[in-house]
Amino acid sequence: MSDYPSIVLEQAVNQMASLPGVGRRTALRLVLHLLRQSDTEVEAFSNAFTRLKKDVVYCRECHNISDTEICPICGSARRDHATICVVENVQDVMSIENTGQYNGVYHVLGGVISPMEGIGPKDIEIDSLIERLTKGEVDEIILALPTTMEGDTTNFYIYRRIQNAGIDLRISQIARGVAVGNQLEYTDEITLGRSIVNRTDFKLN
User: Fold this and answer.
1) Hey, where are the domains in the chain?
2) Is this structure's pTM higher than 0.85?
């Protein structure tokens, strides 16, 4: 027998609880909150997520999320297009933008190399990064990947791909003010901003 007085309520709780970091108690509280709202408010809530899935696309250049084919960052004439910051995911773009310390453009890999999880170089946006670099319009790439084994492996792979392609540019990495093992999205803005400003040349250990 279900713990809920309504099958519809239970289904709504199950869907809400499927979100990352949302337990069943929190899911129930959120669903009951929505139940108390007006039809107009609930419809607006629902429509926002329907539009999110239908209308949001990935930028053709950097793979950041966008409402248009080219995202506002890549499309801005005020950004330094000769500098590309390589990040793992969209959240990292938002974190770095919040620091106000970076004025270049980005390249979102959509993950990092992780053999344990079956994620290889072909599963993330490395080929498109190398393609961008071969155009000869980039002076520097900043490797801003997580300070984890997977992040370091991805850094090494990208470095090797650039070297093997004979692309001449500066390869730097964020300063290790970001603690080892940390994800960028959980790093405070001051520390992350300093790590961008105080970046160092990438070196193989």
Assistant:
1) 7-55, 79-201
2) no
